Amino acid sequence: MQDTGKMSMPADLISHMFTSVLPQEWLGYEARPGQLQLAMAVSRALDQSHLLVAEAGTGTGKTLAYLVPLLRDLDAGSRRVVVATATIALQEQIFAKDLPQLAQVWPVAVKVALAKGKSQYLCRWRLGQMVQLGLGISPREVDHLLGWAHQTQTGDLNEVEGLSRNLLGHVCVDDGCIYPRCPLEENCFWLQARRRVWQAQLIICNQHLLLSDIQVRQQTGGQSSVLPEYQVLVVDEAHHLPGVASEILTIRAEARKVGWLILEARRFSGHGLARGKLQELEAANQQFFASFCSRGTEAYLLDSVNPNQADDLLDGLQWLWEELDSLVFGDAEADLSERRERLKEQVENLRQTIAFIFTSTPGYVSWVEAGGNGLPSLNATPIAVAEHLRHHLFNSVEAALLTSATLATGGNFDYFKQNAGLETAVEVVVPSPFDFRRQCLLYLPRNLPEPESHDFYPQMVELLVDILEASRGRALLLFTSFRGLTAVFNGLSGRIPYHLLRQGDGAKASLLEAFRQDVHSVLLATASFWEGVDVPGPALSCVVMDRIPFAVPTHPVYQARLAAHRQQGKDPFWQVSLPEAAIKLKQGFGRLIRSRQDRGVVAIMDRRVFSRSYGNFLLASLPDCAVTSALEDVRAFFAGEGGPATGGDR
Ligand code: SF4
Fold first, then answer.
1. Atom of ligand 1 nearest to the CA of 185
2. pLDDT-based confidence at 297, cuts 50/70/90?
3. Neighbouring residues of 270: CB distance < 8 A, sequence distance ≥ 6
4. Which of 30, 114, 362, 552 is the most buried (most CB within 10 A)?
5. Which residues, at least 6 apart from 309, have a Cβ–Cβ distance to it below 8 Å?
6. How far apart, in whole angstroms, are the C-alpha atoms of residue 167 and residue 458?
7. CA-to-CA distance for 413 and 431, rounded, in angstroms?
């Protein structure tokens, strides 16, 4: 269903905000027709209580476009809104920058709270225990943590610098929280944050927390939740939602979790729990998980494993539960008794989890993540998440907006809507304010071999030398594999007069900073750099993608998804592989033009975009811009910087 654009009652207010208030009051505000169009569509979704799927091209200013109608709705009514982002960075930007800036020009009395998972907060009680026992923490680290804990207002562990994640993992809030018996409850950061969230009308969280909330509700029959009830939902960077849902809904058993439970059980060995049997259980655990380490680091299907392989461990966990259950504690041992109850619950959960993973359940795929650290995990992942999202998320809200710059593929939303359980949602496409025909040239060289050919990377290097000479460096080279990245890095080394930066030679943030600072540098990167890289200005004037970014076909969950489509008589390549590649290609393309002043070339080195029948589908997913296969046009484009792009239509 398309958004019709029919006006609703508050249209005047929304329009007034974007055409009058913001341009006059917000320093540096640029009016963008697409932003107003999106705001009006969100306003209608709120008024008419429907689901809206909105693709908002790069530079639309979509955050402001949904915040204004949301605040208008909150100001006028009694609904609660949850905004879920894909990253903590965007979550914090909305809370700490966008909302305060908007409040300066439009003061609306709305209570806002930032919601983060409990493991993001310091547990004062665990910190006290750790300091008291002195386990695994140096005096310097103790001073550092205590100093920070004394002055922090939030207890958010993201504020701590200079301490390892591993160490912070020992002092964060976890399932062992002893509330309501905690002597530090009054000053507990997590409980304070939770209270703020429960009192707020507008909650800013991330997608992991949003989905953890529906999972907890489901597991506890609605008795418990991570978030309070809400009626309106906004999912930003929504193309991530099905993937995050798949991750959160995965049922997982890890060797270290079993080890931790056995360690905890040792506390009870002085109360009648047989120490020898515990050691046997520990040995069974190690042997069990070690048997999954022999296949290297690749993820693999559990199908090929003996279904009775887990029997010894399951029997051991059953024994542990019964032993714990039989322990008798005196009146003065209430603490221990409560601890025993919690441990029993965790042991039973783990036993059921492992049993579930080893049972063939329709709709789930069981697989092993071997891991490079010798600590494998066993997983059962739902093959499709659409039904779950539809039933537990979208059916329980009055209105929802799902937005991103990359939702449509091949000119429609079918793939995203089917994947996310949003078949009935209203659609709107808001074009980017950028003039891609003037600002951008798409270069599709025709003289390179097929990407599988052993000549592909050597010949790509030769062509890159010419492209980078024309662009004077200033390029982001995106790869689908480290193998390709390394081949090109080695090939270009010493051949171009520009600094080569390579993923892996530093943290992402510092590499990007170096890339920004050294305007002519060339950055070579893979996966995570295909999105989220925002480098406006001349330092990023050329984006090169080595291959069509098809997903790795060997992952068991991906294979199960393809097989499920095949069983339904659908073509998995057209229904899954191609739309996913189109979204990623679009994300890579989106790194180039970040402002109205930006100008540059995107080059796709994979000849399949024009030699295969599916090439048009991929190209139709990209912004409308001039296209060429002539290197001369690329040279002319860079030589005439400031003028329009030359090239033909697709
Ligand atoms: S209430 Fe729980 S999370 Fe808070 S300090 Fe106590 S044990 Fe830690």
1. 1
2. low
3. none
4. 114
5. 288, 291, 358
6. 45
7. 15
Q: Which residues line ligand 1 (CB under 6 A)?
A: 123-125, 173, 177-179, 182, 184-185, 188, 190-191
Give the ligand 1 atom nearest the CA of 182: 6
Note whether 11-111+200-247+385-430 and 251-381 share their fold.
no
Q: How confident is the model at residue 7 (pLDDT cuts 50, 70, 90)?
A: very low
Q: What Rg do the C-alpha atoms of the chain give, in angstroms? A: 27
Give the dihedral sign, CA 62/65/68/74: negative
- Mean pLDDT for 355-380 is 85
Query: Residue 232's CB: how many other CB atoms inside 10 A?
Result: 23
The mean per-residue pLDDT over the stretch 83-91 comes to 92
User: What spacing in Å lies between the alpha carbon of 276 and ligand 1's midpoint?
Assistant: 33
2.60.260.20, 3.40.50.300, 3.40.50.9100, 3.30.70.270: which CATH number matches 436-639? 3.40.50.300
> CA distances (Å), 232 to each of 225, 244, 423, in order?
17, 20, 18
Parallel/antiparallel/unpaired status of strands 300-301 and 399-404: unpaired
Closest CA to 110 of 232, 239, 220: 232
| Residue-level pLDDT at 527 | 83
Ligand 1 centroid distance, CA of 67 (Å): 34
Residue with tokens 């993973």: 357
Report how far ligand 1's centroid is from the alpha carbon of 118 (Å).
Answer: 10
Q: What is the CATH number of domain 11-111+200-247+385-430?
A: 3.40.50.300
| pLDDT tens, residue by residue, 41-53 | 999 999 999 999 9
Complex ipTM, two decimals?
0.99
Q: How far apart are CA 131 and CA 142, in angstroms?
A: 7
Residue-level pLDDT at 550 = 94
